[in-house]
Amino acid sequence: MSTQSDPAAVASGDRVVIFDTTLRDGEQCPGATMTFEEKLQVADFLDEMGVDVIEAGFPIASDGDFEAVMAISKRVKRATVAGLARAGEKDIDRAGEAVKHARRGRIHTFVSTSPVHMKFKLQKTPEQVLDMVAKQCARARNWVDDVEWSAEDATRTEHDFLCRCVETAIKHGATTINIPDTVGYTVPEEYFALIAMLIARVPNADKAIFSTHCHNDLGMAVANSLAGVKAGARQIECTINGIGERAGNAALEEVVMAMRTRKDVLPFANGIDTTMLTRASKLVSAVTNFPVQYNKAIVGRNAFAHESGIHQDGMLKHQETYEIMTPESVGYGKTSLVMGKHSGRNAFRQKLKEIGFELGDNQLEDAFTRFKALADRKKHVYDEDIEALVDDNVAHAHDRMKVVALTVIAGTMGPQSATLTLDIDGQHQTVQATGNGPVDATFNSIKMLVPHEAKLLLYQVHAVTEGTDAQAEVSVRLEEDGRTVTGRGADTDTMVASAKAYVAALGKLMVKRQKTAQAQQGV
Ligand code: KIV
Ligand code: ZN
After folding, report:
1. Band of the pLDDT at 338, cuts 50, 70, 90?
2. Is 150 in the pocket of ligand 1 (CB under 6 A)?
3. Which whole-number Å values give the CA distances from 428 to 398, 431, 443, 449, 465, in the listed order?
4. How far apart are alpha carbons 147 and 135 in whole angstroms?
5. For a Cys staple, 487 with which of 135, 448, 502, 504, CB 3.0–4.6 Å?
6. What secondary structure, in 3-state letters, does 312-366 show?
7. Is 373 exposed, middle or buried, given 0-12, 13-18 or 19+ CB atoms closer than 10 A?
8. For 297, how many CA atoms within 13 A lie in the half-sphere containing its CB?
9. How far is the CA of 242 from the centre of ligand 2 (A)?
10. What is the enclosing helix (H) or strand (E) of 402?
11. What distances in angstroms separate CA 518 from CA 62, 95, 203, 515, one per listed residue?
12. 114 lines ligand 1 (CB under 6 A)
């Protein structure tokens, strides 16, 4: 759906615009920072999956954000690309610059409207805020036809004042009106009543699309978003896996599958190809290093697992006894034994296609070589193994440092030691280090080659599939001078995966350091 189609037509129809803010609100949660390449990868995936609006970032926040929004604007084929902006002229102009190359560009501009935010955060009177609303929408409208205005902390805003703000925003060119539950405070009945009240009371409300943006502090983000749609909102703002500030945002996969599964009570349409939801979840989890909880609705690894005897018996008799949607409908494939060391390049390419990867020739060749190496070491190669391998490959394609070789001596007779060779900017360098255990020894060897003061905040290992020969997927989070980065690595050898993850995180830290230094020097 074109979000530039007549807002009035969308507002009165049953089609819900899916606005994904994984790259903006999602990326705002501590540690979820993505690299430039990862952002492009996620944007491409969202576009292909049928997301209507991709909020690609907050262009004034940093040069990196600006560049990412600009690059996403240039490459996205179908979706509208939005850039976020506060009420100031500089913010709006920066967002306008960033989205100006998009086939469909949107400026999403916001200001706080609740008494507590106006008094303490903005230190402005309601009249001053109203003036800001008029000016921010008019300025954004000079850049694009598609302007979204948000009343930050709308659910704690006085109704009469909120009506005046929304009326002003529409009068000055906003075509989408977003009513955020910024602090995750509302409940479904209240949010329904709020949206219904605005649509009924605000003059010209029918000229704009109303939108939900619900945070999950009380676990009601999805329920609140759906209540908003029932009240007349026709856009839902959400994120993959529900990531976002604090407890996160409404999860895209949940709102979409709720509308699909309960059409009887939620008779609304959207453009999402639901069979891509599982891959989207895995991709976002991989690039942000935020694990998906096992029992997460729709995309958790247990979402379609039936453990108890009674349930298994029922399932064998009829799938509908315990499944309200099929695993296939969300792209959750059964773990299948697919490939082995005798599989050829064509079979590998075909397999990649089936599980949702289209690689260029060089990347394919690289992935195939790694697949062969994996198949030599691992008896059964599952779809999940191939996904981990390709994700790992794509994530590290642009790294300046790479693990070339690692030998670890572990066991009861300490100290444990690690001999590591890293490729740093094309030069091979080798060191040996000891440590209190194999992980410590490995990380110490990295520290010898790349001295740094970063603190290790998280070290997490999980097995990609079952079995003792399963690939390990390791996440490492580092912190230095308030900058947090995460890296990941996959390998059948847990120590190699650990070294890859640590080196990847360190690489990201170096990029961040460099950018800060450049910004300080005004480069
Ligand atoms: O939660 C919020 O209020 C936001 C706005 C910027 C839309 O993220
Ligand atoms: Zn938010």
Report:
1. low
2. yes
3. 17, 10, 17, 11, 32
4. 13
5. 504
6. HHHHHHCHHHCCCCCHHHHCCCCCCEEECCCCCHHHHHHHHHHCCCCCCHHHHHH
7. middle
8. 16
9. 11
10. strand 401-409
11. 12, 22, 49, 5
12. no
216: Cα within 13 Å, side-chain hemisphere = 22
Alpha helix ranges (H) inside 204-325: 221-230, 252-261, 277-288, 309-317
Regarding the beta carbon of 249 and ligand 1, being less than 6 Å apart is answered no
Q: How far apart are CA 294 and CA 451, in angstroms?
A: 37
Nearest residue to 371 (alpha-carbon basis) of 387, 395, 353:
387
Tokens of 487: 């890296």
Among 19, 152, 235, say which to mutate for ligand 1: greatest number of ligand atoms within 8 Å of CB: 152
**Of 308, 185, 340, 300, nearest to 247 (Cα)?**
185
* pLDDT band for position 5 (cuts 50, 70, 90): low
Q: Hey, what are 265's tokens? A: 């009570």
**pLDDT 10s digits, 370-379:** 888 888 877 6
Taking only the tens place, the pLDDT of each residue in 37-90 is 889 999 999 999 999 999 999 999 999 999 999 999 999 999 999 999 999 999
Find the 388 Cα to ligand 2 centroid distance in Å. Answer: 30
Give the residue from 246, 156, 165 showing the smallest Cα distance to 201.
Answer: 165
Tracing tokens 């009106």 back to the chain, one arrives at 177
Residue whose Cα lies nearest atom 8 of ligand 1: it is 25
Q: Please answer whether residues 36 and 65 qualify as being in contact, where contact means their C-beta atoms are separated by less than 8 angstroms.
A: no
pLDDT score for 339:
73
